Amino acid sequence: MNKAALLFFLLLSVRFPAGAQTPFSGDPDQSLFLTTDIDHFWTAYDLFVKDTSVNPFGPHYLEVGSKGVKGFTPFRIRSADYLYNTVKRHRADYDSIRQNTLRIHETEKQCRSAFYALKYWYPEAVYPPVYFVIGTFNSGGTFNKNGLFIGAEMQKEIGNIPHIVAHELIHFQQKNWVNQPNLLRQSLVEGSADFIGELISGKHINPAAHAYGDRHLENLCREFVARMDSTDYQDWLYGVSGKDDRPNDLGYWMGYKITQQYFNKSADKPQAIRDILDIKDPLKFLRASGFLDPYLE
Fold it and tell me: Count of alpha carbons within 13 Å of 174, Cβ hemisphere only?
């Protein structure tokens, strides 16, 4: 997630309080999986190819788009002009992902299976629409009160889509959003979405961060404890400084590890899921997990 996307996420946390998603059904079968925006994009794209001097992405994509396109526009698609200029610069990249995007509808059954699994673990879950849209190669997914939005152009392996959808679905269930969360809280937000997302779909979405984190566990735990009260996410979430060879988003890995240990220690697993989705005091949750105890004063 780039800095603009992060800003959108933090703004979203203010205007999407717990309970805002309740109008949606608690029945996984009632959730809609919508790929019509993908078709609209390629209609506009073909018009662009015929005459690259004209921008067709406003009238033929953004203006006729679903709530998914509307939700994906701030800080991602941004505007018809921004999308048009991105397509002009990266035409070969768009050509390369076309066939994959047209196959995304094939993943609906797997996505819905993850929804059924969440119903088992968390009966209170609600299931919003899932919109698949095409953006500007800057975000794989997000959500707001209207549903989940998946950036189809980012999905090089469509087999990963159920895991990305599962991650965003967990974000939709989470409570206690705050403005300017510190590193600990935000890592728990992301890492718990990875953990429960893996629980319901079979896989999390950050293998590189997990591989690196597990290899450098002790040093990273010490560094995280020193940084966890800060709102500076550099080198942990959404960007790296290049000071070493770490990958992006080690905060996802750290939040996953804390959440995993909390879950494993809990005798009542469904209650543990409720606790994870409703973390009111991140430090108390961390201490209850015991994961970083050797590094805490």
Answer: 28
Contact 233, 183 (CB under 8 A): yes
Task: Judge whether 178 lies within some domain.
Answer: no
Q: Is there a domain that residue 201 lies in?
A: yes
Take residue 88 and report the two structure tokens written for it.
């002009």
User: Do 56 and 44 contact (CB within 8 A), yes or no?
Assistant: yes
Report the number of distinct structural domains present in the chain.
2
> Which of 20, 60, 36 lies closest to 173, judged by CA?
20
Alpha-carbon gap, residue 229 to 256, rounded angstroms? 18
Same domain, 169 and 25: yes
As given in the structure block, the two tokens for residue 205 are: 């979405």
Residues 140-199 pLDDT 10s: 888 988 999 999 999 888 999 999 999 999 999 999 988 899 999 999 999 999 999 999
Query: From the CB of residue 128, how many other CB atoms can be counted at a distance below 10 Å?
Result: 22
Query: Which of 85-93's residues contact partners 24+ apart within 8 Å by CB, and which partners?
Result: 86/136, 86/137, 87/45, 87/48, 87/57, 88/52, 90/137, 93/137, 93/153
Give the predicted TM-score (pTM) of the model.
Answer: 0.89
**Residue finishing a domain among 109, 143, 173:** 173
Domain span at residue 80? 3-173
The verdict on 27 and 122 lying in the same domain is: yes
How far out from the chain centre does Cα 275 lie? Answer: 20
| Same domain? 18 vs 80 | yes
